[in-house]
């Protein structure tokens, strides 16, 4: 089975999603900004076939190089999960223009870079899933930059579907409505099951957003 790539593989959803996919026999490319974070994730996955790579999603050449390393190791991925986000409380007026751009770079532009680098080859093959971790089903004034970013995620999914859906690429988001914590309504392992279900849907079943 072809591999998965998880961009933003921190200890919550990212790790849980990687665990869910490798449990199905897939290899996994794990990408995170921190070397310690990505190595810890790999250690949690035990003997699974994983490749750990560090990259900052706001560094386009670095992110593209990291994606290339995974493709060189495992081939064009069957599923890509973009899970990077800058989660911070802020209201309109709290951030400078540059700070808003910095948040957008993580929350949206990194996903665009990842898709631009991988989606054409996935579409050429005629199969695969590009899944993005969403959130904020309704905008919240106390999380302005994140609300804007998650609205952007929905648009990215729609654009990818329009551009590549007919070629077989399933674009979707998993919108998480609250704080992720084991044993809660938003348990990361339960959330990870939604990614697997989206990935295994047939084109006739495709959903483009799951809200949990």
UniProtKB/TrEMBL annotation:
InterPro entries: NAD(P)-bd_dom_sf, SDR_fam. It comes from the Bacteria. This is NAD(P)-dependent dehydrogenase (Short-subunit alcohol dehydrogenase family). It comes from Kribbella shirazensis.
């Amino acid at each position: 089975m072809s591999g998965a790539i998880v961009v933003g593989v921190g200890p919550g959803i990212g790790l849980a999603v990687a665990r869910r996919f490798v449990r199905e026999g897939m290899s996994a490319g794990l990408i995170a900004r921190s070397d310690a974070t990505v190595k810890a994730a790999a250690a949690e996955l035990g003997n699974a076939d994983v490749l750990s790579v560090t990259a900052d999603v706001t560094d386009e050449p670095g992110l593209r190089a990291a994606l290339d390393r995974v493709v060189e190791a495992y081939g064009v991925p069957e599923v890509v999960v973009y899970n990077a986000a800058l989660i911070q409380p802020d209201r309109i007026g709290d951030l400078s223009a540059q700070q808003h751009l910095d948040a957008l770079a993580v929350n949206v532009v990194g996903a665009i870079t990842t898709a631009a680098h991988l989606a054409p080859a996935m579409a050429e093959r005629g199969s695969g899933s590009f899944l993005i971790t969403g959130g904020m089903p309704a905008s919240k004034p106390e999380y302005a930059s994140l609300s804007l970013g998650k609205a952007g995620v929905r648009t990215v999914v729609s654009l990818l579907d329009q551009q590549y859906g007919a070629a077989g690429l399933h674009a979707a988001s998993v919108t998480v409505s609250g704080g992720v914590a084991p044993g809660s309504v938003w348990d990361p392992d339960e959330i990870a099951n939604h990614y697997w279900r989206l990935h295994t849907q047939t084109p006739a079943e495709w959903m483009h957003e799951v809200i949990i």
